[in-house]
Amino acid sequence: MGIGKKNMQISDKRALKSFNSLMKTVNQVLLSHYDKEFVVEVQLLAEKEFINLIPDLPYIGGRKNFYNEMPIKAAVILAIYRVLSFKGVNLNQFAELLEEITIAYMETIPKLARNVAGKLWMSQLFIRLMKRQARISQERKYTGDFVFEVVDSDSEYIWGIDYLECGIVKFLYQQEEFELAEHACKLDYLMFPAIGVKLDRSGTIAEGCELCDFRFNN
Question: Within a domain: residue 157?
């Protein structure tokens, strides 16, 4: 099933659960900039916009795919962006809000849990699991999926990922909101340090590069 087709395998209930979870943090950040009436209206309009996006969410294999939730989170970000844009917030202003939201969201995760996540990310077990996921992704079974390769360690990093195709970029391109992708990519520099992982990257697909070259260190 390709991007843009009705996807009966992503339920409204599951998608809205992710939406409501993320909106708790979004509302917290928005309340530090706007009054309550504005934030409540954004919540209601963003939910309607998100529901309209659900049929366009690409199915990429379900829970067995490590990136299964990424299209849903991208749709939440897009829904909020569209509503705030309608309210007069420009792209650069939204990008600043998005960074605040990401930092606040990561802080909702207990420090111990973040530390465990970071150690797992850098473990040989996880790297082996990602190599298996990489091989599956390269079959290109789902058009909206990520396609990537795992890069083995060298003297400068412990391991890495080369993304050959990005599911978020595909989704935003399909939605004619490609300009949002580059700002979404920058959030990686906030999320990985929050779990104690150092990220180095020379470029992304959203910036016009052939691939996204993620390199990880402790």
Answer: yes
